[in-house]
Amino acid sequence: MLWGTEESSSYGQADMTDADSDSSPSSSPSRDMALSPENPLFNKYEIGKLLGCGAFAKVYHGRDVSTGQSVAVKVIHKSRLKNKVNLMNNIVREISIMSRLSHRHVVKIFEVLATKRKIYIVMEYLKGGELFSRVSKGRFSEDLGREYFHQLISAVSFCHRRGVYHRDLKLENMLLDENGVLKVSDFGLSALKDQVRADGLLHTLCGTPAYVAPEILAKKGYDGAKVDVWMCGVILFVLTAGYLPFNDHNLMNMYRKIYKGEFRCPKWMSPDLRRFIARLLDTNPARRITIDEIKEDPWFKIGFSDTASEYLPAESQDDEKKSFESQDLNAFDIISFSHGLNLSAMFDETHSATEDVDRLTAEDSPEGVIRKVEAAASANDADLWVRRTKGYGVELEGQNSNFVASLEVFLLTDRLVVVEVKRISGDAEAFSDLWRDKIRPVLQVSGNH
Ligand code: ATP
Predict the structure, then answer these.
(1) Does the pLDDT of residue 300 top 50, yes or no?
(2) Is the pTM of this model over 0.70?
(3) Which of 260, 273, 322, 411 has its CA 20 to 30 A from that of 77?
(4) Over 60: is that where the pLDDT of 200 sits?
(5) What is the pLDDT of residues 112-149, one digit of tens each?
(6) Would you say the CB of residue 185 lies under 6 angstroms from ligand 1?
(7) Which of 47, 51, 111, 124 to mutate to test the pocket of ligand 1 (most atoms within 8 A of CB)?
């Protein structure tokens, strides 16, 4: 039995048997068992009832077995992800940033775990449900709408300043805690969502087209910040009007309305709010209001006190500062190299943890790593040829051609890279001796698996 209510247990159990049968990072007798208090996810989280399904993932209630703290666990099937190289560059970057940041109005990502088949995003659990269900009972007054909108803009502004864009803001991603405080979910997951949606069809059928910005429809490339502002405009409209600004039974008609910016404000909206919404829903991204300008808008300004940092509890500010300053980055929590439960399973299906593959993290730039490898190879006794390949990669060849290996460097944060080396052909022993004795030690190693 899973913990939770009778109803939720059976729902969760049936589902998790399928969804999470490989919760163990390696083959083990528990592989095909349902998760249960005796068999928690990664021995860390008991999984309870299914909270809901989105286009992107299933979300379960969970409990941290060591602290008893409630969490929400988002489970994504990797079979739905494309292009695993991009995962490394974009997803880990975004998630690593978000898991190091705390903001009162952003759902906190605690950690990300991965097995060969699934990715688990462990997040703060919000008890208060979706803002959507409140507004679906009736539109908000302008004052109440403004209050929530302040919280949304505070979160968006905070993340944008750190280079993280949402690109899928919608009312369903606005969750509430037990005190009714708004928290934006899925910040930091846009690169991951892109991968899930790479098949297009899924996105069209299951996504939320009513929030899409016109420049996305135009397919000419877009600016994540501008897209987020548009989506905030749609959210504000729904909060204060009680219905979507662009809607039609026919999807193509809806897209046409979005593209042309055809919407009408209801008569009860104040002139200031109408003007503000028109600036948010400006189809021209270059003209569209910016986050800084939003904060100066007469309708918005009422009762708003900025400084996103004000929303950070003091200890979180310290944490944030520390994580940027120190080399002991929380990226380890994300890639979990040190735990052996690593996201490397995400990137490589065929070579995981064999003698032919090694990964390490280094506090260096990609170029710095390549130069160190080149320097090590040109040392007299190295017996190694090095050739640069595209991106931050090199091919390594034993000088008497006894092996060929490839080495790639992935940027994880501004100061941390992952170096991955793989033997492609030739003598496994010659390769691993040379790597272990001559190359690995010269890279600034701070963790490995
Ligand atoms: P989409 O990509 O369509 O936005 P998704 O696949 O990311 O969706 P969500 O909509 O985020 O999935 O989540 C599915 C359900 O789980 C929703 O009903 C949501 O309310 C609930 N949920 C998500 N995150 C949490 C959380 N941190 N705490 C409590 N409930 C959550």
Answers:
(1) yes
(2) no
(3) 411
(4) no
(5) 887 767 788 899 999 999 999 999 999 999 999 999 99
(6) yes
(7) 51
144, 99: one domain? no
Catalytic residue, chosen from 15, 168, 186, 194, is 168
Most confident option among 173-182, 204-213, 308-317: 173-182
If we measure between CA atoms, which residue out of 377, 385, 353 comes closest to residue 437? Answer: 377
320 domain-assigned: no
| The predicted structure's pLDDT at residue 382 | 73
Instruction: Please indicate, yes or no, whether residues 220 and 304 belong to a single structural domain of this protein.
Output: yes
Domain count for the chain, please give it: 3
Instruction: Check which CATH number belongs to the domain holding 360 and give it.
Output: 3.30.310.80
177 lines ligand 1 (CB under 6 A): no
218 lies in which domain range?
Answer: 129-312
What is the per-residue pLDDT across 18-69, written as a single tens digit (0 to 9) for each?
444 444 433 333 333 355 555 677 778 999 999 988 776 889 999 999 999 9
φ, ψ for residue 191 (rounded to 5)?
-65, -40
Among 251, 282, 312, the domain boundary falls at: 312
Whether residue 347 lies inside any domain: the answer is no
The answer to the question of residue 14 being in a domain is: no
How far is ligand 1, taken at its centre, from the CA of residue 39, in Å? Answer: 24
Question: What's 281's domain CATH number?
Answer: 1.10.510.10
Q: What is the pLDDT of residue 256?
A: 93
Q: Are residue 221 and residue 299 in the same domain, yes or no?
A: yes
**Is 297 assigned a catalytic role?**
no
What is the CA angle 81-85-86, rounded to 5?
Answer: 70
Measured between alpha carbons, how far is 271 from 276 in angstroms, rounded to an integer? 9
Distance CA 192, CA 264 (A): 34
Whether 39 is covered by a domain: the verdict is yes
Give bridge partners of residue 182 from the DSSP assignment.
Answer: 176
Distance of CA 2 to the CA centre of its chain: 28
DSSP-assigned letter for residue 137: T
